[in-house]
Amino acid sequence: MVSKTMDEIVSLCKRRGFIFQSNDIYGGIKGLYDYGPMGVELKNNLKQSWWKSMIYERDDIEGIDASILTAPDVLKYSGHEDTFSDPLLDCKNCKSRWTVDQLVNHSCPNCKSKDLTDPRPFNLMFKTSIGPIEDGSTFAYLRPETAQQIFTNFKNVLDSTNRILPFGIAQIGKAFRNEITPRNFIFRVREFEQMELEFFVEPGSDDEWHKYWVDSRYNWWLDQGIAKERLELYEVKKNELSHYSKATIDIMYNFPHGKEELEGIANRTDFDLGSHTKNQEDFNISSNVINNTKSTTKLIVQNLKNKNWFVPYVIEPSAGVERGVLALLNEAYTVDEKNSRIVLALKPHLSPIKAAVIPLKRNNDELVNQAKILKRKLQKIGLGRVILENSGNIGKNYRRHDEIGTPLCITVDFETLENKSVTIRDRDTMQQKRLNLDELKNYYEKYFE
Ligand code: GAP
Known about the structure:
The chain is of the alpha+beta class and 449 residues long. The protein is 30% helix and 28% strand. A seven-stranded mixed sheet has the order 3-10-11-17-14-13-12. The chain has a five-stranded mixed sheet with strand order 21-20-22-23-24.
């Protein structure tokens, strides 16, 4: 594979409507990005593929969609108020503020002074006030991970579905972190989406389930078209583990800026349900949790053999949607030097546009009408967006659709009017073949099977 730079990916994203700097016309805000017409489709396709694999193709996971604004107590007992921070220090000379890893030779990167304050923790959670009075008495956090509302809904889901262990609750949604140094395009941002599964298991079976989910998630990324040689499993060192984790394996990906975390799979033991449960003292919780005086609900299940009630353990695969999108773009971006084109060789299920229907001549009513009928017919099949490309320049259309990753271009020409056939062009091979209209639906459905 010809290697590509982050700049090339950023440029394609802007040029073809995948990703834009947010608030751009007012100068932008660092660490925020907007998804354009192609980006929103790619992102939705990735999320849908995850949802399908978690909820529809399995029999042991339920989905939820919880609120973003989160009561402070949730994030107090989860440990985030105390521990979800990065150390920051100030330069006493020029008053600039830095993280420890930004320092150059233990000096301020701006003025080179060594006169620095000691590092102090800076909490990464965003706060907002609830209600009309902004006196700080009623505030909420914007959730820093989607996981916590899965734990707070544990009993609701259990009671409404009659699940028994092992089972999972999955959620896709926004998370917010006031990252001190957002960087590397959409890799580290302040507003992003997570695809998180909390899989509840019996204590003692947790190591086995942890391994199971590492394998399962690794293989899922391969199925999305990520090449093995750019993926690696990394066992997080004991002293680097998050406060809730007994063991974490990160799936690392070789991004254009270097090898970094794409997804983490953590064994969170009984920390979470143990932190949020009522009557903690009754359940022999193994994790070091804050004494909870506020929870109204016991987050426990019954052992069906010995009838004892206990707090389940949880295995958590947590993937970032933005990092997934960046990895997919990096994988798919292909420079086809022989044919002087850029191709986004995405797997068809992830392509923003499934097919482009192109009338050969823009102003020919008969061709355009036939193309419109075909577009509607393919759109109705419901496999994703089909587009009518009515700009008249067939060569330019092919190039554009190569760059946004459209696997099929269907051209309606004068032969279509005579003998009811169209040409289908394949994105990767550029080969074209003629197909009768009555075979098209079948061909299209088979292609995306
Ligand atoms: N619930 C566990 C959790 O949130 P995490 O390792 O902090 O764990 C999980 O985050 C995933 O979320 C990461 O693997 C990454 O893909 C994504 N992520 C975290 N912070 C991010 C950020 N600032 N920008 C983009 N994605 C981020």
